[in-house]
Amino acid sequence: MTLEVQDLVVQVDGRRVVDGVSFRVGDGERLGLIGESGSGKSVTALAVLGLLPDGMTASGSVRWNGVEILGMPDRELAQLRGDEIGMVFQEPRSALNPIRTVGRQIVESIRIHQKVSRGQARQMAIEQAARVKLPDPPAIIDRYPHQLSGGQRQRVAIAMALACRPKLLIADEPTTALDVTIQAEVLRLLLSLVEDFGMSLVFITHDLAVLAQVATYGVVLEHGRVVEAAPVQTLLTAPTSPITQGLLRDATATLWRPQGGDA
Asked: What is the set of domains in the chain, with CATH numbers?
């Protein structure tokens, strides 16, 4: 399964917030979209999935396994999302329904795409909760989002995104809202699941140190445009654009070690 984004443009009130972005993610590949706040990386992901807010319009081409999905009817896109492409959002509190238990939300995600009974879906939800290492899965899925910690809510969001074993996962800064220790735990969990399921990954971040841990190729955005695209190791050791050089300076030195670089 391959995602091909070609000359993607997103406009709001006649202003281009994404301007000619192109990239490709092949089967099993891990690509990072990196840039500062406002660079257009999250908007790019929303455009790929047909989730742009009202007032934003997209043009260009987004092809999934050779099929054009940009402009695809909502009903068809809804089936694609979750079933073939999963997404983990930056802030799980806003992604989860506060008045439904997390188990019910995982169950609904499963039943949208799989013909199983509610009882079967509940058992699958428990298994998903265990897979993302939530404590006491049968009990925790009956809790509401506000009864969980930030790290636990993000694990629930990951469980929902992966419930139907999608071929591609888009993760939009999934650890940014968490403290450093929990960030590392969730990042390790996400990567292990991607490896176990053999998924492709698009990982969105503003942190080059994080990108070094999760992706092999990086696309750097600034003001909605691609300013550099290269293997992550190249971005770490020989960045060419000023924005990438700035991101490198900001990276947390203890989280990465370029080959041949100083400790």
From this structure: 1-84+198-263 (3.40.50.300)
